[in-house]
Specification:
Chain lengths: ~110, ~110
């Protein structure tokens, strides 16, 4: 079984500042890792994914994440945030190559302040 | 391409009733998964269907059930509703078994009174 911990439930940041949303996972097997974003009254939108290969993954809207196997982390970063980035962000893990059920973290509410 | 379509978007039921939610996957997607999202428990996996067969099931009571039709559309049913079933129910589809990228719909928000 896998588990995901998102260390910060809320992250306020000023517009154009950099941001890092932290995610740690636990698993006894190889995993795939994902970041999803949820805007109010909407479903989840995939930001980026790590399946294999390069540990630095680039996604949509200028976000990127780095897979660190030794630290079991998959932190999400953006060098300069916009007001429109205000949303809830979810880190998720699935067992690699088999069942695709995702285990989600509890989410991080990113609020970008003017 | 149209996205994942869930109906209804909002509904209100009373305790003891039953509810059926519908999900139309992206055209060509054959796998459909369902998730429950609540403030207390977060996002939890309900079940996954592929080729009309349930492939995986999360840790939910038997009151929660689902099915998938030959056109890949899926329904989930919750019987004998409880207050704690109030949630956003999200459907997601993907192209094939083993593919790990899910595309989510906007969800069906169920309120149980």
């Amino acid at each position: 079984a896998q588990s995901v911990t998102q260390l910060d439930s809320q992250v306020p940041v000023f517009e154009e500042a950099p941001v890092e949303l932290r995610c740690n996972y636990s698993s006894s097997v190889s995993v795939y890792l994902f970041w999803y974003v949820q805007y109010p009254n909407q479903g989840l939108q995939l930001l980026l994914k790590y399946l294999s290969g390069s540990t630095l993954v680039k996604g949509i809207n200028g976000f990127e994440a780095e897979f660190n196997k030794s630290q079991t982390s998959f932190h999400l970063r953006k060098p300069s945030v916009h007001i429109s980035d205000t949303a809830e962000y979810f880190c998720a893990v699935s067992e690699a190559g088999s069942a695709r059920q995702l285990t989600f973290g509890s989410g991080t509410q990113l609020t970008v302040l003017p | 391409k149209a996205g994942v379509t869930q109906t209804p978007r909002y509904l209100i039921k009373t305790r003891g009733q039953q509810v059926t939610l519908s999900c139309s996957p992206i055209s060509g997607h054959r796998s459909v998964s369902w998730y429950q999202q609540t403030p207390g428990q977060g996002l939890q996996f309900l079940f996954e269907y592929f080729s009309e067969t349930q492939r995986n099931k999360g840790n939910f009571p038997g009151r929660f059930s689902g099915r998938q039709f030959s056109n890949s559309r899926s329904e989930m049913n919750v019987s004998t509703l409880e207050l704690g079933d109030s949630a956003l129910y999200l459907c997601a589809s993907s192209e094939d078994w083993g593919a790990n990228v899910l595309t989510f719909g906007a969800g069906s928000r169920l309120t149980v009174l």
